[in-house]
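Let's do one together. I've listed all components of the complex below, 290 residues spread over two lines.
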Amino acid sequence: MVEWTDFERATIQDIFSKMDYESVGHNALARCLVVYPWTQRYFGKFGNLYNAAAIMGNPMVAAHGAVVLHGLDKAVKNMDNIKATYAELSVLHSEKLHVDPDNFRLLADCLTIVVASRLGTGFTADVQAAFQKFLAVVGSALTKQYH
Amino acid sequence: MSLTAKDMATVKTLWGKISSKSDEIGAEALGRMLTVYPQTKTYFAHWADLSPGSAPVKKHGKTIMGAVSAAVASIEDLPGAMSQLSELHAYKLRVDPSNFKILSHNLLVVLAIQFPSDFTPEVHVAMDKFLSAVALALSEKYR
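Okay, and this is what the predicted structure of the assembly comes out as:
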């Protein structure tokens, strides 16, 4: 089981309580598709992903970004049981979506950068450490059912 | 994934905007790296003080950014420009090259915090490619 300090718990709850899910989700997913263009392989049905402007303006990307970010709520609410919480989603990502788990880290890095830009100096090194640990635990849980 | 002319221009433009704060950026990125990725502290056991904002961290952040700045200036020939530093890292410092990626990530986080409107996705991808190219040039002499 993952050990969380009081600071880490409080930090995660705080970040997500203030989160603009639509905006952050949209920006994080779009940034991922721009910075790591090979991730576009999973979004063949999303229409125009031809350049950065098209990606940023694509309504399907915006909608899906929000879906992904709301998916993190499960972990925020069940920090002591993230592995079990994501068992079904892990199976989905493996068996149905066929997502290379390396992508969870790429999206996590983009999400870190977007949240950093929103929180500014409030995103201290300790806050960054807590946030990245949280995302790494989520990524690990999502990878758990792959075989 | 080599740097296009557009990437090089984007990096130089961003560098123009941030260079006056480069020492601070370097110190901040290094401090973050030591906090968020504690395993990186193993390379600095000889420092009296590893805390963010300490004198050795500030000094070393400045040193690193000096080298990154030189890399921007020689962006068309990174292996050539980084040859001596590559030898230093390969034969003397022996830093595992996976750590270059870690420092790069923290540099990008600091840029996102301090220059949120300049650090657009297009600038982000150009900087990420540039820092990857610098890391590759730094690891040239390893084996």
